[in-house]
Amino acid sequence: MLLEWWNAIVRWFNSDAGSSVTTGVILPFVAILAAGLIAGFIMRSSMKRFVAHQARQATAIMARMARLFVEKDCSLIEINPLVVTGSGDVLALDAKVLLDDNALFRHPELVALRDLDSEDADELAAKEAGLSFIRLDGDIGCMVNGAGLAMATMDTIHHFGGRPANFLDVGGSSDPAKVVTAFRMILQDPKVKVILINIFGGITRCDDIARGILQSLSECDVPVPIVIRLIGTNQAEGRRLLEGARLIPAATLEEAAVKAVEMGAVSYTHLTLPTIYSV
C-alpha cells in the first residue's frame, strides 16, 4: 500500500501539473527561504560590519538572486563584489549570470539577447553537432566519450608531460557522423601533432566509433598519428573493423597518454607510422 502511494506521488511530480507546482511554487519558496537564512547568517557573523538596515538590504539582494535563479533557469548567479558604500548602503557592483542552455526554449526573451559574435565559433559548431568542445593551447588533440573521462584523459596527459589541445566529449550516442565532425574540429588546430582517442563504451558502441574513425580517415586529410584506446560495448567488432588502419593501439589510458606524449614530441612531418591497429 505504501509503495502504491509512493508511486502515485512520484507520477504526480513527473506530470505536467506536478512539474508546474514544483518549478512555480516549491522551488521559488525553497530558494527564497535559503536566501533569507544565508542573509541571517551573514548578519550574525558580520555584526561589526553590518547594521540592521544593511542586513535587510543584503537579504533583499539575495532574495532577488534566488528568484532570478529559479525564474530564468540559471545555473549560476555570482555577485562579486558586494560592497558597503560610504553612505552605508549595501550594493552589488558586479555580477555573473550563467543560463542553462537546455532551458532556453522557455525564455525567448533571453535568446534574443544572445550575441553569437562574442562566442567561440568552434564551440558553437560543436554544440550544433551535439558535441562538447573547448579549444586549449596544447598540441595533443583529444576525442573522448563522457565529460568525466575526458577530464581524466587530459589530467593523465598532463601527468606524463603533455598538453591537451582541446576538451572534446563526443557524448553518449554512437553516431559515426559525430566522430567525423570531431576529427574536423581537432584538425582545424594547426598546433595539433597527435590525436588521442579514448573510448570506454557503455551506451557508446565501439563498432560505431570505429565506423566513424574509418569514415574520417577516408574523408579528412589526417597528417598526424592517432593513438587509440577502444574498450567496452562491441569492442571486438570495433577492433575488427579497424584492422589494417594506421592507428597506434593502447590497452590502458596510461599507455595511451604516454604514447601520445611521445608521438607529440616527434615532428610528424618526418614520422613514418609503422603501427597497424591490432589488439
What can you tell me about this protein's structure?
There is one protein chain. It is elongated and about 75 Å long. 48% of the residues lie in helices and 17% in strands. The strands form four sheets. A four-stranded parallel sheet has the order 6-8-9-10, sandwiched between helices. Strands 1-4 form a two-stranded antiparallel ribbon. Strands 2-3 form a two-stranded antiparallel sheet. The N and C termini lie far apart (54 Å). The protein is an alpha/beta fold and 279 residues long. It is built from ten helices and ten strands. Helix 1 crosses helix 2 (16-45), helix 2 (16-45) runs antiparallel to helix 3 (52-71) and helix 8 packs parallel to helix 9.
Output the keywords.
two-stranded antiparallel sheet, 17% strand, 10 strands, alpha/beta, four-stranded parallel sheet, 279 residues
Q: How confident overall, as mean pLDDT? A: 82
Following the backbone from N to C, one meets helices and strands in this order, namely HHHEEEEHHEEHEHEHEHEH
How much of the sequence lies in strands comes to 15-25%
Ends distance: 54 Å
Strand order of the largest sheet: 6-8-9-10
Number of strands: 10
Q: What kind of sheet is the major sheet?
A: 4 strands, parallel
Low-pLDDT residue intervals, each spanning 5 or more residues: 268-279
Residue share in helix? 40-55%
Number of helices: 10
The Rg value, from CA coordinates, equals 25 Å
Give the overall silhouette.
Answer: elongated
Structural class estimated from helices and strands: alpha/beta
Compose a concise summary of this entry.
With 279 residues, the chain is of the alpha/beta class. The chain is built from 10 helices and 10 strands. It is 48% helix and 17% strand.
